Amino acid sequence: MTWPHPAWSTIATGSxxxxxxxxxxxxxxxxxxxxxxxxxxAWRFPGLEVTRLGYRGRDFATFxxxxxALAERIEASPSPELALYGHSMGAILAxxxxxxxxxxxxxxxVFLAAARPPSGMHDGVAAAAAASGGLSERAREVLLEDLALxxxxxxxxxxxxxxxxATLLYSTDDPVVPASDSLRWASWCSAAxxxxxxxxxxxxxxxxxxxxxxxxxxxxxxxxxxxPAAPGTASGLxx
Length: 239
Description:
Blueprint: E1 9-12, H1 20-23, E2 25-30, E3 49-53, H2 63-75, E4 81-87, H3 89-101, E5 107-113, H4 123-130, H5 137-152, E6 166-170, H6 179-183, E7 194-197, H7 210-220
Parallel strand pairs: 2-3, 2-4, 4-5, 5-6, 6-7
Antiparallel strand pairs: 1-3
């Protein structure tokens, strides 16, 4: 499969001698509908490699073909461990890519942020996002192209099919995705996901709230979790 319009960029975020090959973790970030890789421009973590993945709805006939292309790109990483962070529509793509890759045993963690679960009922999100003001004509066109691809997604039943560790992020200030919808993701996860409320920043809270970066860093830290000096992590629900 050939990716039609590459839009990813890799950022080595450790020292010059530190990369995903050394730490074993390579994080891939997927933006929201109508967004770009610039959403994650400030995402840098000590000892981790970050790749921002871009997509355009117009480039794919189906949502499945988009997920296939993303999974193929992610799997090509030389790192033994992979992590995915998806925001809004990017979370659905991250979920689908993770399903395709979890059998490899390399997916260490999936972050699902500001998104309804993959039930196939995304009309409400699409309408709210499309109605948002302040967009240029071109930006609105891109948004609608992405949302058209999302509308094609048939969804999946809540069958606990995501078998890798997951973290859910939501904001009580999000006008597009209610917290109650984000919490329903648990039914698609085989193990109880970690849950974080990230107040402030509205629907795109990952752009401005440092708590998001800290959650990701703490979760993917190369320091062993049983080390007393390791950063704090959440287990179960944090609401």
